[in-house]
Design goal:
With 573 residues, this protein is of the alpha/beta class. The chain has 14 helices and 30 strands. Strand 23 and strand 24 form a beta hairpin. The longest helix has 21 residues. The protein is globular and about 80 Å long. It starts with 31 loop residues before the first strand and ends with a strand. The mean pLDDT is 94.
Amino acid sequence: MREPTSIAELDLTPIPGKKYWNIDREWREEFIYFIMVDRFHDSLDRAPLLKSDRSKGSGNSEQLGKFCGGTIEGITNHLDYIKNLGCTAIWLSPIFENNGAFEKDGKPDYNSDKYHGYAIQNYLRIDPRFGTKQDLIDLVFAAHIRNMRVFLDVVVNHSGDNWYYPGDYPYYYYKDRQFPFGGLRRPDRPIPTELQNPNYYHRRGEIRNWDAYPETQHGDFFSLKGFNNDDDPDGLILQDILIKAHCYWMREADIDGFRIDAVKHMGELAVARFCSNIREYAYRLGKRWFFLFGELVAGEDAINRYIGPNTPTQVNNKTVYFGLNSVLDFPLYWSLPGVIKGFSSPMNLINRYEALRNHALTLGELGRYLVTFVDNHDQIGQDYKRRFATDTPDKQVIAAIGYLLCAIGTPCIYYGTEQGFSGAGNDDKFIREAMFDLDNPDVNYLNRNCIIYQEIAKIAKLFPQIAALRFGRMYFREISGNGSDFGLPQSQPCTLAFSRILAGEEVLIAYNTSTTERRNDFVIVDSDIHHKPGNNMKFLYGKQGTVPVQKHADNESRFIQLELEPMQFVILQ
C-alpha cells in the first residue's frame, strides 16, 4: 500500500475491529528506558560478552558522527533485556524520515550525520535506515505483550533543513525580522505536502541568544527550520497538520505516549493545544493513560506554564487546553549527580525538593511527578560532554539509579548506563556510544551479568511491589552522629536519607556519599509508625537482617542506627 504524502489522505477513524492497547498503570509508575534507535542494536544476531564488569560501548569519533546501524527490529529482538532490567516503558529517539535519508541512487544513506532523528523531512514515513512502519507496529505489539509502553520522541517545534533562505547561506535572528523564503531543497519534501507552505514557518533565521524572547521561540534551531506555532490563522493550520500527522501514528502503531522535543522554544498555548488534541484522540482509541511529557530545559518556574490548563488569548474563545502531563526534571539533573558523587552540598538537593513542593501546591500531583534522570543524550550548554558514569565507581552509578527508583518522580534510565558506559568528549556524539560492536558483527554489549545491570534490576524489582515507592510522600531525614543532636546533612560526606510514607507504611532509603569512609549515623524515622517498643526495620536491599528502632532520650522521636560502607545504598521497611 502506498504511503500517504498528504494530510488529506489520512484516515483517522480507529481501525475497524482493532482493540487498542491499554493498561491500568499510571505513568508515574513507569520505569522508562530511553533508547537512541541508531545506537541500541542492529538487526544482526549478536551475543554479549558475558562478564561482571562494565563496558565502554563501541565507536570512535568518525563512527559516532554518522549512522551506526541500529534498527527498530534490533530493539524488538532485545526487549527482554530491557524488561529484565526492570523497565516498563521504552522511549525511542525520533524515527521519522530525516534529511539525507537517501543517496542519489535512492538507497539509504548511512554516511549522513542525521542519525539522531531530529531533522525530519517526512512525518508520515519511518526513516528507512531504522526500518519500516511494520517494524514499528511489530515493536509496539511485542512491547505490549510484555506489558510495556512505547513512547515516541516527537518534534513539533521545527522541521529539518527542508528549505533555504535566499542565496542559501545562513541567516541569523535580528529584531524579529521575517526573511524571504528561498526555495525547497527537494520538490517532494517535506511531507506531508501541506508543510511546503512558506507561511507555516517563522523565517527569522538562526537563534543566537537562546534565553531571549521572542528570539528563542521565533528563531530557527540552528539549520533546522522553526515552525510558525503562533496563535494566528497560519499557525493554527500548521498546528492542525502536525496534530493529525501524529494521530496517524497513534492509529497505525498503537503508540502509548509522546516525549515532545524543545518545548521551551514553543509557546505555552501551542504546546497545550497539541497535547489536548492528542489526548482527546487517544481517548477516542480507548487509550486512557496516553503520556505526554516534554523537554523543558529551564528552571522550576517554567514548569507551571507548560503543565496544566491554558486558554487562547482571543476574547470570545473560552476553550481550555490542557498541556503536558510532565516534563523532564532538569532541576534534579542539575543537582543530584553532584550529591551522589559527594562533591556538592546535600542541601542543593534538599532545597530543590522544597521548590518542587511549591509546584505541587499550584499544580497538585502534576507538579510532583516529573520524569527524573541523571544521564542524557543532549547536554545543552556544556562544552565538554560526559556521561554520569564517566570516572564514576559502579556503586555510585547503582546508587544514582536506585535513588531515581525510590524518590518522587517517574524514573528514566539512558541506554548504556546500566552497563557503565562512560563516554566523554567535546561533542554529543561521544555520549551516544553503540551498544553493539561496530568492528565485530558477532558481539553486542547487552550484558546481563554486568554488576550495575544486576543491581539496578534488584532495586527495580521492588518498585512495582511496594506502593510507597510509587505513591508515597517523601521526606528527607535528619541524621546524627551521636544519637542526640539531629539535623539535615549540610556538607559532604554524609548519610543521605529519605523516607517514602504511604498510609501507615514507611520505606527508608539511605546512602553513604563517602567514597572512602564507613559511616555509622543515626537516622530519624516516623514516630507515629514506629511508636511501639521493639519495632524493627528490615533491609530490603543492600544488606541483610534488621535494625531496631530506638527512642530519643529527650523527646518522642524515633531513629535507627545505620552502619554503611563507602557508597553503600540501602532500602529498609
